[in-house]
Amino acid sequence: MAPLPRPLPQGGFTFSISPSATHLNHPISHFLSTPLKFEGSASTSTHIRPQAIAGGALVFSQSAPDATDRILLLQRAPHDSMPLRWEIPGGACDPEDESFLHGVAREMWEEAGLLPRRMVCQVGGQEKPQVFLTRSGKVVMKISVEVEVDEGFGAEEETDGNVKWKGLPKVVMDPNEHVRFVWATEEECRAGVMMVEGEGGEMEELKLNFTHKEQRETILEGFQIRRRRALEGKDVEDA
């Protein structure tokens, strides 16, 4: 018998939505009823109706002592499909979810124990929808969203010399789905490798083999969006 998912937080999910994410604030039925158009060769096109919707949450934080932008990555369990590969939090949205964005919030809570504060923007998939087939042949459309989390939830005050800083958000995984998490920089995601502290205290190389190339591309696009937003002097409320 599969373990039950983590109970929803008391009072449900409360988050704000930036202008760039309002088009995602619809029930799952809205996305299932909209055929996806794919351009083919010789000016031909194909329409595919998704049978399920999956959501992905790009969770970034600059709360480490060096203030470097990092993204949360989870390593899939060895007994699951694509074993031990890396991905962002996410999964299937349910018809019972209040909206697609609430489905993203639920998956992020169940897989990482994090609470969303703001849904910022869609990352990837605007020009060419991300569609994949499950092992049973079901057509699934995946939509990834940058999510600002409540960094005070589970974070602890730590001291680095004389400087106090709030640590990276506390991640509580579901061990049935994931076995490890990291906060990776853009350079580490691009290279597919990072250095981590081993069990004996020595530094060792950790390979970041993503679930598929689209996952890596979405992650790098997320970093690019955040870098461009910072250069333009915008914050997430204006995204």
UniProtKB/TrEMBL annotation:
CDD domains: NUDIX_Hydrolase (cd02883)
Top-rank lineage group of the source organism: Eukaryota
This protein's name: Nudix hydrolase domain-containing protein
Organism this protein belongs to: Neurospora intermedia
Domain Nudix hydrolase, chain residue ranges per copy: 50-208
Alphabetized InterPro entries for the sequence: NUDIX_hydrolase-like_dom_sf, NUDIX_hydrolase_dom
